[in-house]
Amino acid sequence: MIDEALDLFLGSSCIGCSTPGRMLCRVCRRDLPTGASLAWPTPTPPGLVPPWATASYDGAVRELVVGHKDRGQWSHRRVLGVLLAGAVRAAAAELDPEVPVLLVPVPSRRGAGRQRGYEPTAAIVRTAARVVRRDRRVGVADLLVSRGAIADQAGLGARQRGDNVRHSMHCPSPALARVRRRWPVAHLLVCDDVVTTGATAREAQRALEAVGLTPHAVAAVAATRRRRAPGRLGVDESLARGR
Ligand SMILES: [Zn+2]
Ligand 1 being an ion, which residues bring their Cβ within 5 A of it? Predict the structure, then answer.
């Protein structure tokens, strides 16, 4: 409520269609996708578990993600959490409904939120958990931490991204012990805002597997759609634009 009042007060406009008023107008909100689908990156990092994403990373969704992560527009958390919930539901659909689902946020790397002590990805994941909790037992497990500074991913190709993030995450023993006590049996899902090359999700999966955990799938708000322009075979336009 306060966010929306502020948006109106500050004279904002819809990030999807520029209509003055709310940061996401009713029409653009209604047009957001609901069902998720598999979004395998090309090339797929070897061994990556199935990646589910609700939206393609463009238009209003891209503005929501970037605004939330890099511009401190934290009110987008709710709509992004609902989108992530779609991917979580799709990923969990074939799992035993009696077994709880544990959402593991990919640790944030950069952005306005991170700098102010706000974990953008973890915040979206918590919102998604509240949505999915209406249907089944679900928890959030902050199992992964970043080992430190990672070079900015913008402008890097798939292979460079893989090298950049390899062994960049780990699962601290106290966190693991805590989660094992609380959730002795659970299905793990790696959760992120955007799947681009899959390198980050694969690294999260590796870090969990290194401590004996077996993530079942990846769930993301959105995935980049690969566009292959003539003469630029294999160049992903979204990579050039960052993230
Ligand atoms: Zn709009």
Answer: 14, 16-17, 25, 28
